[in-house]
Amino acid sequence: MDAAMDFLRRRIAGSDSAIPTSTLFERATAAHEETDPTSTIAEFHTSLNGVNQPMNLLFKDILWWTLGITAMIVLVIRISEIMWARLRQVSAMSVSGEKQGFWRTSQWSWMPSMKKHLIYAPLWNKRHNREFRLSSAISIGTLPSRLHSIMLFIYLGSNFAYMFVLNWQQKNRYEFCAELRGRSGTLSLVNMVPLIIFAGRNNPLITILKISFDTYNLLHRWMGRIVVLEALIHTIAWAIVCVADIGWKGVGDEIVSKLFVGSGMVGTVAMVLLMLLSVSPLRHAFYETFLNVHIVLAFVSFVATWVHCASSELAGGLPQLPWIMAIMALWFADRLARMFRILYVNWSSRGFTDAICEPLPGEVTRVTLNLPRYVDIQPGTHAYLRFWGINAWENHPFSICWVSHSSDNSLPVLEKEPLHSVDKSTMTTSVSFLIGAQTGMTRKLFDQVSNSRRSLRMKAAMEGPYAGHHSLDSYGHAVLFAGSTGITHQLSYIRHLLEGYNEGTVATRRITLVWIIREYESLEWVRPYMDTILRIPNRKDVLRIQIFITRPQNPRDIVSASTTVRMFPGRPNVPLLLQKEVQEQKGAMCVTVCGPGALADDVRGAVRVVQGHTVVDFVEESFTW
Ligand SMILES: Cc1cc2nc3c(=O)[nH]c(=O)nc-3n(C[C@H](O)[C@H](O)[C@H](O)COP(=O)(O)OP(=O)(O)OC[C@H]3O[C@@H](n4cnc5c(N)ncnc54)[C@H](O)[C@@H]3O)c2cc1C
After folding, report:
1. Which residue ranges does the record assign to the FAD-binding FR-type domain (predicted)?
2. What residues line ligand 1, using a CB cutoff of 6 Å?
């Protein structure tokens, strides 16, 4: 009947007047018989025809609730942890390490094995942050931890399940495709919301849930893959119906002539390119190019998706239109927050930030930024740096090694009077970093500074501080492992804990720093900071330093200065070292590591081995993502 009507309409239009009427009628009837006698095709590649919108909205709710409930559970765990740590800190900060026996012992018998087999466990045996490499230049990435893998498996698995809860009894395969188109498109957009939240440096969940940017970045990568896959299925499901209806040429015409279809196609192509160009070897080898192309393609995908949702023939656009608006708003909010942070930190009536850069042995540059205002910086934070004249469009993350505040035209505040008694509006902050030369911006910086043979002053800007949500104040015992420039992360904690020890504000009674460097000369990197640390009153009561020099040029350099600062040639036996620490454990212990992936994996493995009846927590700071 439809075929006959179709035929009549064309006849009235008169466009086929040269072809005999009977031939046209037969062709029209045959086309419909070939596909499906029970219904038409055309309607199933347009609008919401055949789309099961109630089910789509149900799965949208389920996915967002899954994420929301997970966040709430993490929040409850975090709040309990913070309260527990606060209780520990307040009750232990005024007693000796020997009297912190309650906090030394694990209060829940299941906790050590939970940490060993789940929370701190790598996916299989040992490997987590040591990169898989095809060659010294080509990295193909790292393995997620066991807990992260389980979470990813559940989330990705649920996405696949929701995608295929379709009417499999449907006789009309084009209607089936329409249902798949609706589901995959909806899920793709649903996942884009957390995808974009997790990508932001200013994601508020980092602070609220105390989960590091690394973890969100891992989730971002996997969510990105699922978003692209779903967008691709959405496009293919549409194309199958469209090709059956109007052929490939017709599909091409639709893409060119209809904004709705064209924008959808641009969005899908941009997303597929995004995914292909984000594979680990490319990402690691050409990070800056990857980042710039990634941002441009992400922007194109968002704009195309917005246009796609808005240009639908449905009144008010597709129901997903508000989501893509929210996605764009979140994206711009992060960009705006970053701009605001840069302006706030680096600019005041006193002028703009400048950097003093000094070349150091081992191809390291010490950079001290003089900020034109007071900035409060916690231990364990990092910031993104830009240097005027050295790939100024790039910004790279570096751990904040040392912070000092000074009042206008006076001595650093640290050496004078307590900070709370000083008017902060009259103060400025200096922030120091140690930057190892790699092959890109860091190499250019080092070359420029070492060619000048003395310290170089240049304009620079800092975006941050970021992170710093791991407080060690409630631990009686801190064991800090650092590899090479990873010392930056650990130094900030040492000074804070020693000062806290003297002021009676922290529970810490023992700090063991284990630093692994290649050459003796690397000690020069931290000499001014170490001198200050070693001069802090009572530091001998608390701090033990062990330095391991893996390739000493002259073995006679390896001399231990005292029983509290010792030097050794070669690598440390991490498991043995940690076992000795646990034998002498004071209160609850936290082991942290910052350095190359292989060292981090060794320390993680050793922490898992010592999980027994005492409390041994583990925190890892990674320099790669
Ligand atoms: C939180 C954090 C803290 C860090 N702290 C320090 C530190 O205190 N001292 C130090 O020497 N290094 C630190 N790094 C590493 C440092 O950021 C990189 O070595 C630096 O960005 C390399 O710049 P490049 O242009 O010379 O890199 P390239 O030689 O081009 O690449 C070297 C490696 O660095 C990675 N990389 C390049 N650019 C970035 C970027 N913008 N963000 C993340 N990774 C990048 C590449 O993927 C590659 O694996 C830290 C990294 C992170 C994530």
Report:
1. 329-472
2. 284, 287, 382, 396-399, 433-436, 438-443, 485, 488, 623-625
